[in-house]
Amino acid sequence: MTTATPLGDTVTTFISLNMTTRGEDFLYKSSGAIVAAIVVVVIIIFTVVLILLKMYNRKMRMRRELEPKGPKPAAPSAPGPNNNSGQHPATVTFSPVDIHVETR
Questions:
Q1: 3-state secondary structure 27-66
Q2: CA-CA distance, 28 to 25, in Å (whole number)?
Q3: Tens-binned pLDDT, residue by residue, of the chain (104 aa)
Q4: Which of 4, 11, 16, 53 is surrounded by the fewest CB atoms within 10 Å?
Q5: What pLDDT sits at residue 30?
Q6: What pLDDT was estimated at residue 25?
Q7: What does each C-alpha distance from 102 to 12, 35, 88, 96, 97 come to in angstroms?
Q8: CB of 59 within 8 A of CB of 67?
Q9: Where, by residue number, does the polypeptide cross the bilayer (predicted)?
Q10: By CB neighbour count within 10 A (0-12 exposed, 13-18 middle, 19+ buried), where does 10 fall?
């Protein structure tokens, strides 16, 4: 004796499994396109930031070149203990010493 199983449950299970497989298959196939799109967006953002930095650098350089330059001091004096202005520069002299070599 065989018992009849209702076909409705089997067909519903088969369709839901088939839909899950199709959805996963779609995700696997489109994952490469998603990664490529992310890479392209990152490259575009990097390029825009680079161009903006170059424009800013060029603007700042032109501003520095166009601003009037004041007279430079003849001798810059640095305050502090290392200030040697007015003094003679320190010189190091080497004086050889007698070297005694012992002979046997």
A1: HHHHHHHHHHHHHHHHHHHHHHHHHHHHHHHHHHHHHHHH
A2: 5
A3: 555 555 555 555 555 555 567 778 887 888 899 999 999 999 999 999 999 999 999 999 998 888 887 766 565 555 555 555 556 666 666 666 666 667 76
A4: 4
A5: 87
A6: 81
A7: 108, 81, 42, 18, 16
A8: no
A9: 33-53
A10: exposed
Spatial separation of the C-alpha atoms in residues 39 and 103, rounded to whole Å: 79
Q: What is the pLDDT of residue 29?
A: 82
The Cα–Cα gap between 17 and 42 comes to: 37
- Rounded to an integer, what distance in angstroms lies between the CA atom of residue 14 and that of residue 24? 15
Tokens of 1: 């004796």
* Rounded Cα gap, residues 10 and 19, in angstroms: 14
Query: Any idea which residue has 């003094």 for tokens?
Result: 87
The beta strand positions in 59-100, using DSSP E, are none
Q: Which of 45, 41, 65 is nearest to 53 (CA)?
A: 45
